[in-house]
From TrEMBL:
The lineage of its organism: Bacteria, Pseudomonadati, Planctomycetota, Planctomycetia, Pirellulales. Gene3D superfamilies: RNA Polymerase Primary Sigma Factor (1.10.601.10), Winged helix-like DNA-binding domain superfamily/Winged helix DNA-binding domain (1.10.10.10). Residues 1-13 have a biased composition (Basic and acidic residues). It comes from the Bacteria. Pfam families: Sigma70_r2. Residues 1-23 are annotated as: Disordered. Residues 130-201 form the RNA polymerase sigma-70 region domain. InterPro entries: RNA_pol_sigma-70_dom (IPR014284), RNA_pol_sigma70_r2 (IPR007627), RNA_pol_sigma_r2 (IPR013325), RNA_pol_sigma_r3/r4-like (IPR013324), Sigma-70_RNA_pol_init_factors (IPR050239), WH-like_DNA-bd_sf (IPR036388). It comes from Rubripirellula obstinata. This is RNA polymerase principal sigma factor HrdB.
């Protein structure tokens, strides 16, 4: 968000005569060039994107799902088009930051907010265009990493999409490099990070509560108290699973492949089984895991 409308803690100093409290706002981060400060900058940087020579859409590859077909209707940006869009995005953020700094202590802030909302919409449009223009790269990388004959592809696409969204915000267009090079590395890091996280989660969950038992087996003379504590730890995990709501328990067990013939199930498959969106399923999984960690830490 461009503007954070939270009420400032310094209410006494930021309130106007009518008692209205000025919002607390944080300027946007952007990459600055000196030309942003020129009076004629808007005419240049907010102009229509230059056309690409012989720009044509491409046909969707046969091994790509139909719901991703629209990505092949978006032409790949030329270097000039890409630079224009990133410069425009950062110039809009520059304008937004100037707007924030000028109205944060202005009593007419609420009258100016409509213009700030319009500026925010412009930023979102340019940002979304840059993301969509590079999603074919996500699909290409996800196809390469997805395990054949599994449903892993969609999950990797979701991870890659999030990586591109972050990369658009962090890309420094002033360096003169292509965004695809930067985005490629960001997508790869996110996918490898997913693999590492899932591996740690599975290892931690499946061994939770049994570590103490294994330690006792290594000791020559384990004490009765140590054995009792180990059994209680493992029982805590089982008890906690039993206490979960049926839906949350199903998500956790399916995700880790516990008491299941499969090694682990992708979130989008679990979501279909319990009739929820993939995003909501991931949220419930993360919430449940946090509850279990907090419980076991007590």
């Amino acid at each position: 968000m461009i503007l954070d409308r939270r009420v400032s803690k310094k209410a006494d100093s930021d309130s106007d005569a009518s008692g209205t409290t000025a919002p607390e706002m944080t300027p946007l981060k952007y990459f600055h060039i000196d030309e942003f400060e020129d009076e004629s900058a808007g005419e240049i940087f907010l102009a229509v994107m230059p056309p690409a020579p012989n720009a044509t859409s491409q046909r969707r590859p046969r091994d790509v799902p139909a719901y991703l077909a629209h990505l092949w209707q978006i032409p790949v940006l030329t270097p000039d088009q890409e630079y224009h869009c990133f410069r425009k995005l950062n110039y809009l953020k520059y304008l937004a930051s100037k707007s924030i700094c000028s109205v944060v202590h202005d009593r007419r802030y609420h009258e100016m907010f409509d213009d700030s909302e319009a500026l925010q919409d412009s930023i979102h449009r340019v940002r979304n265009f840059l993301v969509e223009s590079n999603l074919r790269l996500v699909v290409s990388i996800a196809k390469r990493h997805a395990v054949p004959n599994t449903d892993q592809f969609e999950e990797l696409v979701c991870v890659g999409n999030a990586a591109v969204m972050r990369a658009v915000e962090l890309f420094d267009f002033r360096r003169g490099t292509r965004f695809s090079t930067y985005a490629y590395q960001a997508i790869e890091r996110s996918i490898y990070g997913l693999y590492r996280t899932e591996k740690r989660r599975r290892a931690k969950f499946t061994s939770e509560g049994s570590d103490n038992l294994e330690q006792c087996a290594d000791d020559d003379l384990p004490s009765n108290q140590a054995i009792l504590e180990a059994v209680e730890a493992k029982a805590s995990v089982v008890s906690l699973l039993d206490d979960l709501e049926a839906r949350d328990r199903e998500i956790v067990l399916a995700r880790f492949g516990i008491n299941r013939p499969e090694d682990g199930v992708a979130f989008h498959i679990i979501a279909k089984r319990i009739n929820l969106s993939t995003t909501r399923t991931v949220q419930l999984f993360n919430r449940t895991m946090k509850r279990m960690r907090d419980y076991l830490a007590e």
